[in-house]
Design brief:
By secondary structure, the protein is of the alpha+beta class. The protein folds into 2 domains: 211 residues, no CATH class; 82 residues, no CATH class. Helix content is 29%, strand content 25%. The chain has 7 helices and 16 strands. The strands form 4 sheets. Strands 1, 2, 5, 6, 7, 8, 9 and 10 form an 8-stranded mixed sheet that branches. A 4-stranded antiparallel sheet has the order 11-12-16-15, with helices on both faces. A two-stranded antiparallel ribbon has the order 3-4. Strand 6 and strand 7 form a beta hairpin. It is globular and about 50 Å long. It starts with 6 loop residues before the first strand and ends in an 11-residue tail after the last helix.
């Protein structure tokens, strides 16, 4: 399938109009900018790489700290001007691609259902699954659908963001032979705004029972290893029943929690913005997926209470995933 047949859209934060335009393939807009930041952190932990099967909690936690230090998320999604330009290229790319992956995965999940995990497409144990060119990522949905994807970063803002560039066309046409639905995001995180260019053609391939079982086994082993390494703590009765492990860390702009549950839980989609005395508040956020829980509070003199953030955000109680 050539680029001329692909669907193309721009998601921009903050939107030049009245909020991000609805996605043309789902009829829905992306989630709020604050929630997307939480999802950028969450998807970093849900990304199963060949290396991450050997390296665990400490590495993932360090990557999350890098992204938090470089991306502003209190009210708008943009560069942290004080840190971004001074960071290494590798760290800037990590931050940019994390935002792009969050937007891409958010829209895939709204259309194809919850994502169980994201894998490196080039991992040796995945090469049997899809024929053709090899993009960077394989997204495994709870429905059994397999989505190919890439989350690429840009260091300069384009002028004509409504048109595909030659770079886009070359990469798209090289990957056009992949045997399932392909999503690609190109993300620019600037000092005043963020924009993500998205491409999406085709229909997804569904995993065979054997493939589905193998992928679920890989992600289960990965999450079990992370869970065994994560710090223990008591985060309230709701989370105690899910055997949640994790930790709060204080950073320059607030507190960030990352944790792993001992069991699979029903993923959360959108939830209400925290409301404090009738005033819309953007200082708290919580999000969870298959087994990863992420929360933050932008301002607190002491370590926040996870259950307080969940209840104040009007999020439902997390539930063990039905099999």
């Amino acid at each position: 399938m050539r680029l001329g047949m692909a669907r193309y859209a721009i998601v921009e934060f903050p939107s030049p109009t009245n909020g991000p335009a609805p996605n043309p393939w789902t009829g829905q807009g992306p989630s709020s900018e604050n929630l997307l930041f939480a999802r950028a952190i969450r998807h970093m932990f849900e990304h199963v790489t060949h290396q991450s099967l050997r390296l665990g909690w400490t590495l993932k936690r360090a990557e999350a700290a890098v992204v938090q230090s470089l991306v502003e998320f209190g009210g708008s999604l943009r560069q942290n001007i004080g840190t971004f330009d001074r960071a290494s290229l590798r760290h800037r790319q990590l931050a940019i691609e994390s935002v792009g992956l969050a937007v891409l995965a958010d829209l895939v999940a709204k259309r194809e259902g919850p994502i169980v995990a994201t894998y490196d497409f080039d991992a040796q144990w995945l090469r049997v699954y899809l024929r053709g060119a090899r993009p960077d990522l394989l997204l495994h949905c709870d429905s059994g659908k397999l989505i190919a994807g890439e989350a690429r970063g840009r260091t300069t803002r384009r002028g004509k963001v409504t048109r595909a560039t030659q770079e886009h066309r070359r990469r798209w046409n090289r990957l056009a032979g992949v045997s399932t639905q392909l999503w690609i995001s190109w993300t620019y995180v600037g000092p005043t705004s963020t924009h993500v260019a998205l491409f999406d053609p085709g229909e997804p391939q569904r995993a065979t029972p054997a493939q589905d079982k193998r992928l679920r086994g890989v992600q289960r082993d990965y999450f079990d290893a992370l869970h065994a390494q994560a710090p223990t703590g008591d985060f309230g009765e709701v989370w105690r029943d899910l055997d949640l492990r994790g930790e709060w860390r204080e950073h320059d702009r607030g507190w960030l929690f990352t944790g792993i549950t001992g069991v699979s839980i029903e993923p959360q989609f959108d939830q209400a913005t925290v409301n404090d005395g009738g005033r819309l508040e953007q200082a708290d956020q919580i999000d969870w997926g298959n087994r990863v829980v992420v929360a933050y509070r932008l301002s607190s003199p002491t370590e926040p209470d996870l259950e307080d953030i969940r209840s104040r955000s009007q999020s439902p109680s997390p539930r063990i995933r039905s099999t």
